Records
---
Amino acid sequence: MFSLTIICGFSFDAASQSKLPESSIKTVYIVPTSHYDFGFVEPPDLVRERAARHIDEVIRVAETNPNFRWTIESVWQINEWLKRQKSPTSVLPKDNAKIARLMKLIKSGQIALSTSWGSMHTDFMGAEELNRICY
């Protein structure tokens, strides 16, 4: 066990602080995100497995929260997920209707698919690919 002690050597007088001007921002949205650099943080096989399991988790959360939105950023992630539907490595291993569940969420707009195969990298994408990724 350890303890943490913080000693502050300054005082704060809220009454003497000037008020900030009112902001036009009334709502702040917290957006969950993930990004998989293929083989950057972990070996490619581990990244593939993590990405596939992540889609299972996205399906679960989207089905329990109708306001949840997600974009699957790379086609390779869907490809890996589809490969693993025959194996019991997923978060939802015995759900034979998982592909239909994902398609329903895509059609409803809760889950979106990117049009790029992998991460956007300027060495691999020209102007045409960068433009087409937006629609």
---
Amino acid sequence: CASALRAYQVSKGAVSANCASRRCAGALRALAEDGLESFCHLRVAQECMARRAGQQGWSIREP
């Protein structure tokens, strides 16, 4: 995906190959960081819900 975008940008003359590569890498890195942050928030929420369920004597997991 990133290589296709880079090739398209270069073919249109929008940016040099080197610049397109840096832009794609930066965009993918930002996307990965956002995804990891969202994943961490989800895990914390799941752990919190599991603790609450355990304190109340019921489980959020299927038997």
